[in-house]
Amino acid sequence: MHDTARGVAELARPTNCVAAAVLTGTGAFVAGAAGAAVPAAVAAVVTAFAVAAGNAINDYFDREIDAVNRPDRPIPRGAVSPRGALAVAAAWFLVAVAFAALLPPLAVAIAAVNLVALVTYTTVFKGTPGLGNALVSYLVGSTFLFGGAAVGEPGSVVVLALLAGLSTFTREVIKDVEDVAGDREEGLRTLPIAVGERRALWIGAAALVVAVAASPVPYFTGTFGGAYLLLVAVADAAMLYACYEGFGDPATAQRRFKYGTFLAAAAFVVGRAALLI
Ligand SMILES: CC(C)=CCC/C(C)=C/CC/C(C)=C/CC/C(C)=C/COC[C@H](O)COP(=O)(O)O
Ligand SMILES: CC(C)=CCC/C(C)=C/CC/C(C)=C/CC/C(C)=C/COP(=O)(O)OP(=O)(O)O
Ligand SMILES: [Mg+2]
Protein backbone atom coordinates (compact mmCIF):
# COMPACT_ATOMS: atom_id res chain seq x y z
CA MET A 1 0.00 0.00 0.00
CA HIS A 2 2.85 2.34 0.90
CA ASP A 3 4.42 2.04 -2.55
CA THR A 4 1.02 2.55 -4.22
CA ALA A 5 0.48 5.89 -2.43
CA ARG A 6 4.05 6.85 -3.26
CA GLY A 7 3.47 5.75 -6.85
CA VAL A 8 0.33 7.86 -7.21
CA ALA A 9 2.22 10.89 -5.86
CA GLU A 10 5.07 10.19 -8.31
CA LEU A 11 2.59 9.97 -11.22
CA ALA A 12 1.68 13.64 -10.61
CA ARG A 13 5.38 14.73 -10.64
CA PRO A 14 4.60 17.19 -7.80
CA THR A 15 7.64 19.38 -8.55
CA ASN A 16 6.22 20.07 -12.02
CA CYS A 17 2.76 20.73 -10.56
CA VAL A 18 4.07 23.24 -8.04
CA ALA A 19 6.42 24.87 -10.57
CA ALA A 20 3.66 25.27 -13.15
CA ALA A 21 1.24 26.58 -10.50
CA VAL A 22 3.90 29.11 -9.45
CA LEU A 23 4.19 30.22 -13.08
CA THR A 24 0.42 30.75 -13.24
CA GLY A 25 0.54 32.66 -9.97
CA THR A 26 3.44 34.71 -11.32
CA GLY A 27 1.44 35.54 -14.43
CA ALA A 28 -1.44 36.73 -12.24
CA PHE A 29 0.96 38.60 -9.94
CA VAL A 30 2.61 40.42 -12.85
CA ALA A 31 -0.68 41.16 -14.60
CA GLY A 32 -2.77 41.50 -11.47
CA ALA A 33 -4.93 44.28 -10.22
CA ALA A 34 -6.27 44.74 -6.73
CA GLY A 35 -8.34 41.80 -5.48
CA ALA A 36 -6.65 39.38 -7.87
CA ALA A 37 -5.57 36.98 -5.13
CA VAL A 38 -8.65 34.71 -5.28
CA PRO A 39 -8.77 34.20 -9.08
CA ALA A 40 -4.98 33.80 -9.06
CA ALA A 41 -5.22 31.06 -6.43
CA VAL A 42 -8.02 29.31 -8.33
CA ALA A 43 -5.96 29.43 -11.54
CA ALA A 44 -2.94 28.02 -9.72
CA VAL A 45 -5.05 25.11 -8.42
CA VAL A 46 -6.35 24.44 -11.95
CA THR A 47 -2.80 24.39 -13.28
CA ALA A 48 -1.50 22.07 -10.57
CA PHE A 49 -4.26 19.49 -11.13
CA ALA A 50 -4.03 19.81 -14.93
CA VAL A 51 -0.28 19.13 -14.85
CA ALA A 52 -0.79 16.23 -12.43
CA ALA A 53 -3.39 14.75 -14.77
CA GLY A 54 -1.22 15.39 -17.83
CA ASN A 55 1.74 13.68 -16.20
CA ALA A 56 -0.37 10.69 -15.10
CA ILE A 57 -1.91 10.18 -18.53
CA ASN A 58 1.54 10.59 -20.11
CA ASP A 59 2.89 7.79 -17.91
CA TYR A 60 -0.14 5.65 -18.81
CA PHE A 61 0.49 5.95 -22.56
CA ASP A 62 4.29 5.83 -22.09
CA ARG A 63 4.28 2.70 -19.95
CA GLU A 64 6.02 0.55 -22.61
CA ILE A 65 8.63 3.23 -23.43
CA ASP A 66 9.22 3.87 -19.73
CA ALA A 67 9.83 0.14 -19.20
CA VAL A 68 12.97 0.77 -21.35
CA ASN A 69 13.85 4.40 -20.52
CA ARG A 70 12.57 4.72 -16.95
CA PRO A 71 11.77 1.29 -15.39
CA ASP A 72 11.59 2.99 -11.99
CA ARG A 73 8.46 4.97 -13.00
CA PRO A 74 5.34 3.93 -10.97
CA ILE A 75 3.58 1.90 -13.70
CA PRO A 76 6.58 -0.11 -15.05
CA ARG A 77 7.71 -0.89 -11.48
CA GLY A 78 4.23 -2.12 -10.57
CA ALA A 79 3.43 0.47 -7.89
CA VAL A 80 0.33 1.65 -9.81
CA SER A 81 -1.67 -0.34 -12.37
CA PRO A 82 -2.32 1.19 -15.82
CA ARG A 83 -6.06 1.35 -15.06
CA GLY A 84 -5.32 2.93 -11.68
CA ALA A 85 -3.18 5.61 -13.34
CA LEU A 86 -5.97 6.35 -15.82
CA ALA A 87 -8.52 6.64 -13.00
CA VAL A 88 -6.29 9.02 -11.05
CA ALA A 89 -5.69 11.11 -14.20
CA ALA A 90 -9.44 11.37 -14.78
CA ALA A 91 -10.06 12.45 -11.17
CA TRP A 92 -7.37 15.15 -11.39
CA PHE A 93 -8.76 16.38 -14.71
CA LEU A 94 -12.23 16.69 -13.15
CA VAL A 95 -10.86 18.79 -10.29
CA ALA A 96 -9.09 21.06 -12.80
CA VAL A 97 -12.31 21.49 -14.82
CA ALA A 98 -14.39 22.20 -11.70
CA PHE A 99 -12.09 25.01 -10.55
CA ALA A 100 -11.59 26.37 -14.08
CA ALA A 101 -15.35 26.94 -14.35
CA LEU A 102 -14.98 29.65 -11.67
CA LEU A 103 -12.70 31.79 -13.88
CA PRO A 104 -13.32 34.48 -16.56
CA PRO A 105 -14.18 33.26 -20.10
CA LEU A 106 -10.68 33.67 -21.62
CA ALA A 107 -9.13 31.69 -18.76
CA VAL A 108 -11.75 28.97 -19.22
CA ALA A 109 -10.93 28.89 -22.93
CA ILE A 110 -7.18 28.52 -22.27
CA ALA A 111 -7.88 25.76 -19.75
CA ALA A 112 -10.13 23.92 -22.20
CA VAL A 113 -7.48 24.06 -24.97
CA ASN A 114 -4.78 22.96 -22.55
CA LEU A 115 -6.78 20.05 -21.13
CA VAL A 116 -7.41 18.72 -24.65
CA ALA A 117 -3.71 19.21 -25.45
CA LEU A 118 -2.69 17.30 -22.32
CA VAL A 119 -4.94 14.34 -23.18
CA THR A 120 -3.73 14.19 -26.80
CA TYR A 121 -0.07 15.09 -26.28
CA THR A 122 1.30 11.59 -25.87
CA THR A 123 -0.83 9.72 -28.41
CA VAL A 124 -1.12 12.37 -31.12
CA PHE A 125 1.72 14.89 -30.90
CA LYS A 126 4.68 13.34 -29.07
CA GLY A 127 5.72 11.05 -31.94
CA THR A 128 5.75 13.85 -34.54
CA PRO A 129 9.21 15.44 -34.91
CA GLY A 130 9.22 18.72 -32.98
CA LEU A 131 5.42 18.93 -32.64
CA GLY A 132 5.30 17.30 -29.22
CA ASN A 133 8.09 19.57 -28.03
CA ALA A 134 6.24 22.60 -29.41
CA LEU A 135 3.04 21.57 -27.64
CA VAL A 136 4.72 21.12 -24.25
CA SER A 137 6.45 24.46 -24.81
CA TYR A 138 3.10 26.13 -25.55
CA LEU A 139 1.62 24.52 -22.42
CA VAL A 140 4.38 25.82 -20.18
CA GLY A 141 4.23 29.30 -21.73
CA SER A 142 0.44 29.31 -21.47
CA THR A 143 0.62 29.19 -17.67
CA PHE A 144 1.54 32.90 -17.67
CA LEU A 145 -1.29 33.74 -20.08
CA PHE A 146 -3.67 31.62 -17.97
CA GLY A 147 -2.69 33.49 -14.80
CA GLY A 148 -3.00 36.83 -16.59
CA ALA A 149 -6.38 35.87 -18.03
CA ALA A 150 -7.59 34.81 -14.59
CA VAL A 151 -7.12 38.40 -13.39
CA GLY A 152 -8.20 39.97 -16.67
CA GLU A 153 -4.86 41.24 -18.01
CA PRO A 154 -3.23 38.57 -20.26
CA GLY A 155 -1.56 41.08 -22.61
CA SER A 156 1.05 42.13 -20.06
CA VAL A 157 2.50 38.61 -19.72
CA VAL A 158 2.77 37.57 -23.39
CA VAL A 159 6.56 38.14 -23.36
CA LEU A 160 6.93 35.92 -20.27
CA ALA A 161 4.93 33.22 -22.03
CA LEU A 162 7.24 33.38 -25.05
CA LEU A 163 10.40 33.24 -22.92
CA ALA A 164 9.11 30.22 -21.00
CA GLY A 165 7.91 28.49 -24.16
CA LEU A 166 11.15 28.93 -26.10
CA SER A 167 13.37 27.74 -23.25
CA THR A 168 11.07 24.77 -22.58
CA PHE A 169 11.42 23.78 -26.24
CA THR A 170 15.20 23.66 -25.77
CA ARG A 171 14.92 21.44 -22.70
CA GLU A 172 12.41 19.14 -24.38
CA VAL A 173 14.85 18.57 -27.27
CA ILE A 174 17.65 17.75 -24.82
CA LYS A 175 15.28 15.31 -23.02
CA ASP A 176 14.45 13.66 -26.37
CA VAL A 177 18.17 13.22 -27.10
CA GLU A 178 18.48 11.54 -23.68
CA ASP A 179 15.54 9.23 -24.53
CA VAL A 180 16.58 8.29 -28.09
CA ALA A 181 17.14 4.58 -27.24
CA GLY A 182 13.68 3.88 -25.83
CA ASP A 183 11.90 6.21 -28.23
CA ARG A 184 13.57 4.53 -31.26
CA GLU A 185 12.67 1.08 -29.89
CA GLU A 186 9.08 2.28 -29.60
CA GLY A 187 9.11 3.60 -33.17
CA LEU A 188 8.67 7.23 -32.08
CA ARG A 189 9.91 9.81 -34.60
CA THR A 190 11.11 12.48 -32.18
CA LEU A 191 13.19 15.40 -33.50
CA PRO A 192 16.59 13.82 -32.70
CA ILE A 193 15.51 10.58 -34.40
CA ALA A 194 14.15 12.44 -37.44
CA VAL A 195 16.99 14.93 -38.04
CA GLY A 196 19.87 13.56 -35.96
CA GLU A 197 20.87 14.32 -32.38
CA ARG A 198 23.35 17.12 -33.07
CA ARG A 199 21.10 18.96 -35.54
CA ALA A 200 18.20 18.69 -33.07
CA LEU A 201 20.40 20.11 -30.32
CA TRP A 202 21.38 23.03 -32.58
CA ILE A 203 17.69 23.71 -33.27
CA GLY A 204 17.10 23.71 -29.52
CA ALA A 205 20.09 25.99 -29.03
CA ALA A 206 18.69 28.45 -31.59
CA ALA A 207 15.40 28.64 -29.67
CA LEU A 208 17.30 29.33 -26.46
CA VAL A 209 19.44 32.05 -28.05
CA VAL A 210 16.25 33.85 -29.14
CA ALA A 211 14.82 33.53 -25.61
CA VAL A 212 18.03 34.76 -23.96
CA ALA A 213 18.31 37.69 -26.39
CA ALA A 214 14.69 38.63 -25.61
CA SER A 215 14.98 38.10 -21.85
CA PRO A 216 15.79 41.78 -21.07
CA VAL A 217 12.57 42.92 -22.81
CA PRO A 218 10.39 42.82 -19.64
CA TYR A 219 12.83 45.29 -18.07
CA PHE A 220 12.74 47.71 -20.99
CA THR A 221 8.94 47.55 -21.20
CA GLY A 222 8.76 48.52 -17.52
CA THR A 223 7.27 45.19 -16.40
CA PHE A 224 10.23 44.42 -14.13
CA GLY A 225 12.69 46.47 -12.07
CA GLY A 226 16.48 46.52 -12.41
CA ALA A 227 17.02 43.56 -10.04
CA TYR A 228 15.46 41.37 -12.73
CA LEU A 229 18.36 41.96 -15.14
CA LEU A 230 20.91 40.63 -12.64
CA LEU A 231 18.92 37.50 -11.79
CA VAL A 232 17.85 36.69 -15.34
CA ALA A 233 21.45 37.05 -16.53
CA VAL A 234 22.42 34.24 -14.14
CA ALA A 235 19.47 32.14 -15.30
CA ASP A 236 20.36 32.79 -18.94
CA ALA A 237 23.96 31.72 -18.33
CA ALA A 238 22.83 28.55 -16.55
CA MET A 239 20.50 27.60 -19.41
CA LEU A 240 23.10 28.40 -22.08
CA TYR A 241 25.70 26.26 -20.29
CA ALA A 242 23.23 23.39 -19.84
CA CYS A 243 22.41 23.61 -23.55
CA TYR A 244 26.14 23.33 -24.38
CA GLU A 245 26.38 20.36 -21.97
CA GLY A 246 23.52 18.68 -23.84
CA PHE A 247 25.89 17.92 -26.74
CA GLY A 248 27.91 15.65 -24.46
CA ASP A 249 25.75 14.59 -21.52
CA PRO A 250 22.01 15.18 -22.19
CA ALA A 251 20.88 13.45 -18.98
CA THR A 252 22.82 15.86 -16.75
CA ALA A 253 22.14 18.81 -19.04
CA GLN A 254 18.35 18.52 -18.97
CA ARG A 255 18.31 18.39 -15.17
CA ARG A 256 20.59 21.40 -14.83
CA PHE A 257 18.57 23.23 -17.48
CA LYS A 258 15.46 22.81 -15.33
CA TYR A 259 17.18 24.58 -12.42
CA GLY A 260 18.03 27.42 -14.79
CA THR A 261 14.36 27.79 -15.67
CA PHE A 262 13.40 27.82 -11.98
CA LEU A 263 15.93 30.63 -11.49
CA ALA A 264 14.37 32.51 -14.39
CA ALA A 265 10.92 32.12 -12.85
CA ALA A 266 12.32 33.51 -9.60
CA ALA A 267 13.75 36.43 -11.58
CA PHE A 268 10.24 37.20 -12.84
CA VAL A 269 8.85 37.32 -9.29
CA VAL A 270 11.75 39.35 -7.86
CA GLY A 271 11.73 41.65 -10.88
CA ARG A 272 8.05 42.45 -10.40
CA ALA A 273 8.31 42.77 -6.63
CA ALA A 274 11.30 45.13 -7.01
CA LEU A 275 9.11 47.43 -9.10
CA LEU A 276 6.28 47.43 -6.57
CA ILE A 277 8.41 48.11 -3.48
C1 LIG B 1 15.16 32.94 -21.11
C2 LIG B 1 14.14 32.92 -20.01
C3 LIG B 1 14.15 34.07 -19.06
C4 LIG B 1 13.26 31.87 -19.92
C5 LIG B 1 12.17 31.71 -18.92
C6 LIG B 1 12.26 30.30 -18.33
C7 LIG B 1 11.04 29.82 -17.57
C8 LIG B 1 10.44 30.68 -16.53
C9 LIG B 1 10.58 28.58 -17.89
C10 LIG B 1 9.47 27.90 -17.19
C11 LIG B 1 9.80 26.40 -17.06
C12 LIG B 1 9.11 25.80 -15.87
C13 LIG B 1 9.59 26.22 -14.51
C14 LIG B 1 8.06 24.94 -16.11
C15 LIG B 1 7.25 24.34 -15.02
C16 LIG B 1 7.48 22.84 -14.91
C17 LIG B 1 6.88 22.05 -16.06
C18 LIG B 1 5.45 21.69 -16.00
C19 LIG B 1 7.66 21.74 -17.13
C20 LIG B 1 7.16 20.95 -18.32
O1 LIG B 1 7.35 19.55 -18.05
C21 LIG B 1 7.49 18.74 -19.17
C22 LIG B 1 8.75 17.90 -18.97
O2 LIG B 1 8.98 17.09 -20.10
C23 LIG B 1 8.59 17.01 -17.75
O3 LIG B 1 9.80 16.34 -17.61
P1 LIG B 1 10.46 16.26 -16.14
O4 LIG B 1 10.71 17.67 -15.69
O5 LIG B 1 11.73 15.47 -16.35
O6 LIG B 1 9.46 15.54 -15.26
C1 LIG C 1 -2.75 26.32 -17.48
C2 LIG C 1 -3.31 24.93 -17.61
C3 LIG C 1 -4.78 24.75 -17.47
C4 LIG C 1 -2.51 23.88 -17.84
C5 LIG C 1 -1.04 23.98 -17.96
C6 LIG C 1 -0.48 22.62 -18.30
C7 LIG C 1 1.03 22.59 -18.29
C8 LIG C 1 1.83 23.74 -17.74
C9 LIG C 1 1.63 21.49 -18.76
C10 LIG C 1 3.14 21.38 -18.78
C11 LIG C 1 3.62 20.34 -19.68
C12 LIG C 1 3.22 18.95 -19.22
C13 LIG C 1 3.33 18.58 -17.78
C14 LIG C 1 2.77 18.10 -20.10
C15 LIG C 1 2.27 16.73 -19.69
C16 LIG C 1 2.87 15.65 -20.56
C17 LIG C 1 4.34 15.43 -20.26
C18 LIG C 1 4.80 14.99 -18.93
C19 LIG C 1 5.18 15.66 -21.23
C20 LIG C 1 6.60 15.22 -21.13
O1 LIG C 1 6.55 13.82 -21.10
P1 LIG C 1 7.57 13.00 -22.01
O2 LIG C 1 7.80 13.69 -23.32
O3 LIG C 1 7.04 11.60 -22.06
O4 LIG C 1 8.88 13.07 -21.17
P2 LIG C 1 9.11 12.30 -19.81
O5 LIG C 1 10.27 11.37 -20.08
O6 LIG C 1 9.41 13.38 -18.80
O7 LIG C 1 7.84 11.54 -19.46
MG1 LIG D 1 6.73 10.23 -20.59
UniProtKB/TrEMBL annotation:
Catalytic activity: sn-3-O-(geranylgeranyl)glycerol 1-phosphate + (2E,6E,10E)-geranylgeranyl diphosphate = 2,3-bis-O-(geranylgeranyl)-sn-glycerol 1-phosphate + diphosphate
Alphabetical list of Gene3D superfamilies matching this protein: UbiA prenyltransferase
UniProt keyword list: Cell membrane, Lipid biosynthesis, Lipid metabolism, Magnesium, Membrane, Phospholipid biosynthesis, Phospholipid metabolism, Transferase, Transmembrane, Transmembrane helix
Subcellular location per the Swiss-Prot or TrEMBL entry: Cell membrane
Pathway(s) annotated for this protein in UniProt: Membrane lipid metabolism; glycerophospholipid metabolism
Record InterPro entries: DGGGP_synth, Prenyltransferase_related, UbiA_prenyltransferase, UbiA_sf
Membrane spanning stretches: 28-53, 80-100, 200-220, 226-244, 256-275
Role, per record: Prenyltransferase that catalyzes the transfer of the geranylgeranyl moiety of geranylgeranyl diphosphate (GGPP) to the C2 hydroxyl of (S)-3-O-geranylgeranylglyceryl phosphate (GGGP). This reaction is the second ether-bond-formation step in the biosynthesis of archaeal membrane lipids.
This protein's name: Digeranylgeranylglyceryl phosphate synthase
Lineage of source species: Archaea, Methanobacteriati, Methanobacteriota, Stenosarchaea group, Halobacteria
